[in-house]
Amino acid sequence: MRHFDFKNGELHAEDVALSRIVAEVGTPVYVYSSATFEHHYRVFAESFSGIDALVAYSVKANSNIAVLATLAKLGAGADVVSGGELARALIAGIPGDRIVFSGVGKTRAEMADALDAGIKVFNVESLPELRALNEVALEKGLIAPISFRVNPDVTAGGHEKISTGAKENKFGIAWSSAEDAYAEAARLPGIRVVGVDVHIGSQIDDLAPFEAAIRKVASLIGRLRAAGHKIHAFDIGGGLGIPYGDNSRTPPPPSEYGALVKRLTSDLDVQMIFEPGRVIAGNSGVLLTEVLYVKEGEDRAFLIIDAAMNDLLRPALYDAFHDIEPVRAPGPDFQSTTYDIVGPICETGDTFAKGREMPTVASGDLLAIHSTGAYGAVQSSQYNTRPLVPEVMVRGEAYRVIRERPTIADILKTERLPDW
Ligand SMILES: Cc1ncc(COP(=O)(O)O)c(C=O)c1O
Ligand SMILES: N[C@@H](CCCC[NH3+])C(=O)O
């Protein structure tokens, strides 16, 4: 099912021509398809039909409250990593008891807010964090439900900067200390152990690391139960990859992932928790940008576009591939040119593609940068005092601006000249 497709020679999001949105909102602009978000959520959730499962969408992938509200209506929970994400999830209508709180550096204030919201579980990543949470809970006269995020020492993920499950990564409790950590948790009056959590990486294109992690955790659950802990939940994290349109391996579909999880966990008697981010959001959005200039360099042609690394960081940070194509379909006898596609920022890393062959374009043409619904807008900054990119949500024939473009005055409003 393609909700971003060409109709009448123009790229559409559902039934809206992207050029219409640009005419109103300008470029750069992120455009999301609500039907795609819903479709991806449903396909993912249906992969786990028949088992006790909570799909806690990983808010970090795309945290716009309109996105969260779209998923909330389908019954999604949320995986949050900050007080800000928690606030977004609650405002969007995701109930506290469907929210899990991950992250290595939760502050006491964030813990207090999450306790007040009655969240389902804290995924605790260290003993100092556990002790702090115990104190915060006791101060409130509450008991904090926890899983430990354990580090299974499984390497996975599309890039070393997004691999999280190996022992040299900062995440989780070391595998060899996991049982001691559970023993300490059992002694703390403000803590109630409910489960085990892992998250091994992102953009994973192979089921083998998931299988390895599940098998390790399954055996850990057995040992924890033998030691008297009540383990009700197994959070397998997120990480399932998506096709980005390059030549790398195509990740398995959620149905295969679901079948694997069902097969390996059927006799564990736990609720399975999933924290998918990219697989829901990634291909639900595009970044639209205008070609500012075509610059003929000595040995190559540069397309200078009005989006930059501050708007979409993935290519600069991870050498990530994103498919880029003109919004207006080229005619049947079109020419191709090989371009380096770059933004206006004063950094060599401000490069979206090198040596990319595509239909020849000219100044003023619109381009769509695909697969930017996840880790796009959320990772943007105002570097070079470039206002954050607006976001638009399409639903059928309608569209709405779901985050406005700040003006330069808006940006400057938050800064102060000191009075000395
Ligand atoms: C703890 C945790 N859960 C879930 C996710 C979502 O990952 P993905 O977008 O790869 O599904 C991440 C990011 O990698 C994460 O760190
Ligand atoms: N931000 C990364 C994924 C890391 C997810 C956070 N654990 C990306 O764009 O691919």
Characteristic key phrases:
21 strands, single chain, amino-acid biosynthesis, eight-stranded parallel beta barrel, binds pyridoxal-5'-phosphate, globular, 420 residues, binds lysine, lysine biosynthesis, 12 helices, TIM Barrel, Lyase, Ornithine Decarboxylase, Chain A, domain 1
Task: Explain the overall architecture.
The chain is built from twelve helices and 21 strands. The protein folds into two domains: 4-31 and 282-413, Lyase, Ornithine Decarboxylase, Chain A, domain 1 (Beta Barrel), CATH 2.40.37; 103-274, TIM Barrel, CATH 3.20.20. It has 420 residues and is α/β, with parallel strands linked by helices. The strands form three sheets. Strands 4, 14, 15, 16, 17, 18, 19, 20 and 21 form a nine-stranded mixed β-sheet that branches. The structure holds pyridoxal-5'-phosphate and lysine (LYS). Residues 60, 162, 202-203, 314, 318, 375 line the site of lysine (LYS).
Number of helices: 12
Q: Using the coordinates above, name the CATH class of the largest domain.
A: Alpha Beta
Task: From the alpha carbons, calculate the radius of gyration and give it in angstroms.
Answer: 23 Å
Which CATH architecture of the largest domain? Alpha-Beta Barrel
The CATH homologous superfamily of the largest domain is termed: Alanine racemase
Extended strand count: 21
Structural classification: alpha/beta
